[in-house]
Write a structure and sequence with these properties.
This protein has 446 residues and is mainly beta. It is built from four helices and 22 strands. The protein folds into two domains: 178 residues, 3-Layer(aba) Sandwich (Rossmann fold), CATH 3.40.50.200; 167 residues, no CATH class.
């Protein structure tokens, strides 16, 4: 590896539960972290004080022999939490969904951010500290090492074991950033402490208008590349029912016919939104046998969810098609008329076995003030002469006679909505994610 790059290894970190401030209890080397000796790059000047870097370097990258006694560059230089990806690491909120993150693809960006903090506090703001490794090795081989780094002495990467001090698994270890900044900069505050500009609030949607719209034609099957019109989101609405007892979550798609993609086992349509710091979701789903379920839940920063499966709703066939989930207000914080709902985002997916494959996402463009609305969105378009659209039937059921179709979601609007369907509880209702430990690495004194 180049001597002009900082190599970062990964660790798995556990912390004490229920204590404030949180303290690390154990940190060991991630078994899949890299590390070892370079095959062709000789040891740079900044590594010469580290006796553990000891592998001979016979030739350079062109095949030219090095002088006898030349040592190869050792990596990594330092480490940071990577987690084990499966159950320990970071959780990331992406498009209002909590997803796990981990591996050295996290460790390295963490060091970029931490080094940026160190640079911001450097007294020489004209030239800065420059390339990080000479500074990190000066500190790592100095008297403050035990205070500036968490030495990783447990674990291996399969070829090398973690040992006291610098090693081929974790380098100097993970940083105690507060102490490291003090030793390097003599301070922890930025030299120019300029706060970021305030983030303006998103615009408000007019009452009963959609909270987001999305162009059609961008719902490609991730396996075949074919378009899936019934997972092609074009509009999202969040409105109160006329009797103000339910939140009507409405997702419009290009076409709805209820046919699951051939390689899929089911489909789902989900809307996320945030109110007063809590992120909620509502979901409709259908399996290959035509069983339909409606549910909602609460998503938190650790990926857990609190799900309900007793919602009602309807699927309306047509072009466009309509998916509605009617959520009891008590499930979602009992928002009053005029409550501001933010960060609305829609997701359409189909399941391959037990794994969801997201096909389309719509949002987030506008906040909305909750208001009772009786006819959002407009009914499906009228079909051209000679090509009548199918009746708005319950997916998986026989088409009812036009005179018997009713709606449970507000005042009628042609064509009528379907009766609410009995709920079919399924494990897929809920936020699909793993639970990870959210562990900060910015200055905190430990």
């Amino acid at each position: 590896m180049s001597k002009y790059a900082v190599a970062v290894g990964g660790t798995v970190l556990y912390a004490s539960a229920g204590n404030s401030p949180t303290r690390r209890t154990v940190e060991y080397a991630w078994p899949f972290t890299g590390g070892g000796s370079s095959g062709f790059v000789d040891r740079p000047e900044y590594q010469k004080a580290v006796t553990a870097v000891a592998h001979p370097c016979p030739i350079d990258s062109t095949g030219k022999p090095y002088a006898p006694g030349t040592i190869c560059r050792g990596i990594p230089d330092v480490a940071a939490i990577s987690g084990d990806v499966a159950g320990n690491g970071y959780t990331i909120v992406n498009d209002m969904k909590v997803t796990p993150g981990g591996g050295t693809s996290l460790s390295s960006p963490l060091w970029v951010g931490m080094w940026s903090r160190i640079q911001a506090a450097a007294p020489d703001q004209v030239h800065g500290l420059g390339f990080a490794n000479p500074t990190l090795y000066r500190v790592g081989t100095g008297p403050g090492y035990a205070q500036d780094f968490h030495d990783i002495t447990v674990g291996s990467n399969g070829l090398y074991a973690a040992t006291p001090g610098w090693d081929y698994v974790s380098g100097f270890g993970s940083p105690n950033l507060t102490n490291l900044m003090r030793d390097i900069d003599g301070r922890t505050a930025p030299v120019h402490d300029v706060p970021p500009p305030a983030v303006p609030a998103p615009p408000l949607a007019t009452a009963c208008d959609p909270v987001w719209t999305s162009p059609s034609g961008n719902a490609a099957d991730p396996l075949t590349g074919d378009q899936i019109p019934q997972l092609d989101l074009t509009r999202g609405d969040l409105v109160l029912s006329p009797d103000r007892t339910r939140l009507r979550v409405i997702l419009t798609v290009s076409t709805l016919d209820g046919n699951t993609p051939q390689e899929g086992t089911g489909m789902s349509w989900t809307m996320y939104w945030t109110e007063n710091g809590t992120t909620y979701f509502a979901r409709a789903q259908i399996d290959r046998l035509g069983a339909v379920g409606f549910g909602d839940g609460v998503s938190n920063a650790k990926g857990a969810d609190e799900a309900h499966t007793d919602d009602t709703g309807s699927l309306t066939k047509g072009s466009p098609g309509r998916v509605e989930i009617d959520v009891p207000l008590g499930h979602v914080g009992t928002p009053a008329p005029g409550t501001r709902l933010t960060y609305a985002l829609g997701e359409a997916a189909f399941d391959v076995g037990i794994l969801p494959a997201t096909v389309d996402i719509g949002g987030t463009q506008r906040d909305t003030l909750l208001a009772p609305c009786g006819s959002a969105p407009p009914p499906p378009a009228v079909a051209p002469p000679g090509k009548p659209l199918p009746l708005p039937v319950t997916v998986g059921q026989a088409a009812p006679a036009p005179s018997s179709a009713t709606s449970t979601s507000g005042p009628t609007a042609p064509p009528p909505l379907l009766p609410s369907l009995p709920v079919v509880p399924r494990a897929v209702i809920g936020v699909r994610s793993l639970t990870g430990a959210l562990l900060g690495t910015l200055p905190s004194g430990g």
